[in-house]
From TrEMBL:
Keywords: Glycosidase, Hydrolase
Residues in Glycoside hydrolase 35 catalytic domain copies: 18-331
Domain Beta-galactosidase galactose-binding residues, every copy: 507-565
InterPro entries listed in its UniProt record: B-gal_1-like, BetaGal1-like_ABD1, BetaGal_gal-bd, Galactose-bd-like_sf, GH, Gly_Hdrlase_35_cat, Glyco_hydro_35_CS, Glycoside_Hdrlase_35
MF annotations from Gene Ontology: beta-galactosidase activity
EC assignment: 3.2.1.23
Protein name as catalogued: Beta-galactosidase
Residues annotated as catalytic: 159 (proton donor), 235 (nucleophile)
GO BP annotations listed: carbohydrate metabolic process
Family label: Belongs to the glycosyl hydrolase 35 family.
Organism, scientific name: Streptomyces spongiae
EC category name: hydrolase
Length: 598
């Protein structure tokens, strides 16, 4: 297989091929997102890419993960460490920094606080983009191939032709990247359709395509727009994503192998999307909207797993698809492929959790929530600085009044409603009105949860919360009190006032422990629980939801430790039955860990 060259190597775009120091090379790349894989597993997953027959790794960069608030940067160095790991693994690297990335990621990677006309030349948008790129590119520039690093190409925007036509915006991004010291080739990526390629590509930059099948037809379209230059499918969709309440995505391994062979027989380079998907830890899953070409219909939130039916599954195991694609890729290798590396250790034995304490949602909000706000109309999540999490809206229905319908107009996305302290129902976008009317006077609380911001389409950046007001008999109820709770506020639960477990499965924050012998990769199951988030030793595993199809959460082995391990479960609707039994027996709804099978 081709090894990366270090020290003053030049990677360039020729008339028909990619060139390394003037020698034609074919890129056999695989997508692996550093932010969806525990850092201690990067080396194993990159070695799996090599063993499959790939010579390059591609990663997006999620802006909102690294700049949660304006000017507040977090762990930007992760990208640099990942690129160093790619170099050590013998892989070239393609970086796709956006600023928009899609990726089935919350808001397509754009921070919730960004304003202005998204993805345009609007200075209210471009000013924070420029600040972000100047910070981010410091991790990329010194790791370019002409400086001894693995980075061979950098993408400008992402599938922009599916969204807009602002060529000035694209050129501004390209000029900014060049001004910050990026010297490797730049490229754009779009679907193989005329309107996408004309909207998303710009002169002087390599244009690449995204598709899942019918490679010859796709490259014919690309050639009409770019008669010269290397052919590359920058996203070959060898699998697909899954959303809550939907069917588990799957693609036949032999069908995938035939499609990959067609691409390579065209003489093209390819990037497998995804080679290894990983996990949407910490509630970063995005969402898509159905409803035809406008993507303007019902919200379909993505599950926590980003397995993607990839050839390397969520837990790092080779699948049947891995072996079929490896057979195809081996035909294009310079020599024998590396052996498949041994899998990371799995948990030694299944263990149940023992829940020991509980805090009601009101107490969690009081101790870890943001400031309380009162306004005539409900403020949005964005106005309350909530990216992932929930907001409690409180209103007073005046009285005396007869029972009338109560409606949360413009609800995004889901609300558990309490009337005078008693749960009255669950509202959704599709069913925003309580089934039973409400008489006044009454105190109404609506605990609204964001299930993930849209990551694709014209509704990118839409606000969350109650966006159209609370109505009682078609009249607005004014004077709304609101308070938000960010999911990341519970990465530390110091100060939360816990009490004994409730007799029934009340919502709230549950605390407990696992006793682990033989720490390693594991799966967490929560039988009978409804919807919420889980932390193990302060690491947020992501969202669980009883609607399926995902019914277990992945626990990376490095998160666990020998002996006692802390467990926190934030249940937002209804926990599993009676969890208050004494120490002599574990209730049937107790969370449990089991080993990942190897």
């Amino acid at each position: 297989m081709s090894e990366i060259r270090v020290g003053n190597s030049e990677f360039s775009v020729g008339d028909s091929d990619f060139l390394l120091d003037g020698r034609p090379v074919r890129l056999l790349s695989g997508a692996l997102h550093y932010f969806r894989v525990h850092e201690e597993h990067w080396g194993h997953r990159l070695a799996m890419l090599r063993a499959m027959g790939l010579n390059c790794v591609e990663t997006y960069v999620p802006w909102n993960l690294h700049e949660p608030r304006p000017g507040e940067f977090r762990e930007v160095g992760q990208l640099g460490r990942f690129l160093d790991a790619a170099r050590e693994a013998g892989l070239w690297a393609i970086v796709r920094p956006g600023p928009y990335i899609c990726a089935e990621w919350e808001n397509g990677g754009l921070p919730h606080w960004v304003t202005g006309q998204l993805r345009t030349r609007d200075e209210r948008f471009l000013e924070p983009v420029e600040r972000w790129f100047r910070r981010l590119l410091g991790e990329v520039v010194p790791r370019q191939i002409d400086r001894g690093g693995p980075v061979i190409m950098v993408q400008i925007e992402n599938e922009y032709g599916s969204y807009g036509t602002d060529q000035v915006y694209l050129r501004r991004l390209a000029d900014l990247v060049r001004a910050e010291g990026v010297t490797v080739p730049l490229f754009t990526t779009d679907g193989p359709e005329d309107h996408m390629l004309t909207g998303g590509s710009i002169p002087g930059l390599l244009a690449t395509a995204t598709f899942g099948s019918r490679g010859r037809e796709a490259f014919d379209v690309l050639r009409r727009h770019r008669p010269t230059g290397p052919l590359m499918c920058m996203e070959w969709w060898c699998g697909w994503f899954t959303y809550w309440g939907g069917e588990q995505a799957a693609r036949d391994a032999e069908d995938a192998a035939r499609s990959l062979r067609e691409i390579l027989e065209c003489g093209a380079s390819v990037n497998l999307y995804m080679a290894h998907g990983g996990t949407n830890f910490a509630g970063w899953s995005g969402a898509n909207r159905g409803g035809g070409t406008l993507h303007d219909g019902p919200l379909h939130p993505d599950v926590t797993s980003y397995d993607y039916d990839a050839p390397i599954d969520e837990y790092g195991r080779p699948t049947e698809k891995f072996w079929r694609l490896r057979e195809v890729l081996a035909e294009y290798a310079d020599g024998p492929l590396p052996d498949v590396p041994p899998a990371p250790a799995a948990l030694g034995e299944a263990v149940p959790a023992r829940l020991t304490a509980w805090a009601p949602l009101e107490d969690v909000l009081e101790s870890r929530g943001g400031p309380s706000v009162e306004a005539p109309m409900p403020p949005t999540f964005e106005e309350l600085d909530v990216d992932r999490g929930l907001v409690r809206y409180s209103v007073e229905i005046p009285g005396p009044r007869e029972p009338y319908p109560l409606l949360a107009r413009g609800l995004r996305d889901l609300a558990v409603v309490y009337v005078d302290g008693e749960r009255a129902g669950v509202l959704t976008e599709d069913e925003p009105q309580l089934k039973e009317p409400v008489a006044g006077p009454a105190r109404v609380e609506l605990w609204v949860e964001s299930l993930g911001r849209a990551n694709y389409g014209p509704r990118l950046g839409e606000p969350k919360g109650i966006t159209g007001g609370v109505l009682h008999e078609r009249a607005f109820v004014h004077g709304v009190r609101a308070r938000g709770l960010r999911v990341d506020a519970l990465d530390d639960i110091e100060g939360v006032p816990f009490r004994e477990l409730p007799e029934e499965g009340a919502p709230g924050l549950y605390r407990g422990t696992f006793e682990v012998r033989g720490a390693g990769d594991a799966l967490l199951k929560l039988p009978g629980w409804t919807r919420g988030f889980v932390w193990v030793n302060g690491f947020n595993l992501g969202r669980y939801w009883s609607v399926g199809p995902q019914d277990e959460l992945y626990v990376p082995g490095p998160v666990l430790r020998e002996g006692a391990n802390d467990l926190w479960v934030l249940e937002l609707q209804e926990a599993a039955g009676d969890l208050s039994r004494g120490t002599s027996a574990l209730p049937p709804g107790a969370p449990s860990l089991r080993p990942v099978s190897r």
